[in-house]
Amino acid sequence: EVQLVESGGGLVQPGGSLRLSCAASGFTFSSYSMNWVRQAPGKGLEWVSYISSSSSTIYYADSVKGRFTISRDNAKNSLYLQMNSLRAEDTAVYYCARSAPLRYLTDWGQGTLVTVSS
Amino acid sequence: EIVLTQSPGTLSLSPGERATLSCRASQSISTSYLAWYQQKPGQAPRLLIYGASSRATGIPDRFSGSGSGTDFTLTISRLEPEDFAVYYCQQYGRSPYSFGQGTKLEIK
Fold this sequence. Notes:
The complex is a heterodimer of chains A (118) and B (108). With 118 residues, chain A is an all-beta fold.
């Protein structure tokens, strides 16, 4: 069974940093591309970032480009999102999601809440 | 960036009725790289449809997707009580892999 478990969320002040992690199990992590998707309270889904299986291809939403960095450690079956220069509008539940080869999102974690507030 | 517009914003129907949800793209989506997800309160989204019309594993056949180019539709043939949720379309043909704003399907 595919399992994706996010961690690292919490309360951070504007301008601060946070690193999210996603622990993957139940599949060969190194063979799959991964994504981060977020959802602000009471709002819709927003795709944040994509990383290919070998980390050779990385994409970001314009709203986070230059502030967020996606990475992975295939030896540790883990996905990361380093978030810097955080703003109030980054407040959201952050989901990690596995991509099929054609990049639709087949499996999702339960999410971790990031709150940016002073 | 491809902008996806879903309509209606809210759809009020009764169990047993047919639901038709629309997703319109600002540009043509290559090779029908369009997916639909269902999200219930407090839960992560779940993949329903990919490639515009292919059902994901375990998805009942009352869910169907259609369309190409810029116009796509999710149809639920006979609503079950568990189908009342929020539905999102997403294009994954070109980064950024944008979502629509969602359609809330509520019980009438």
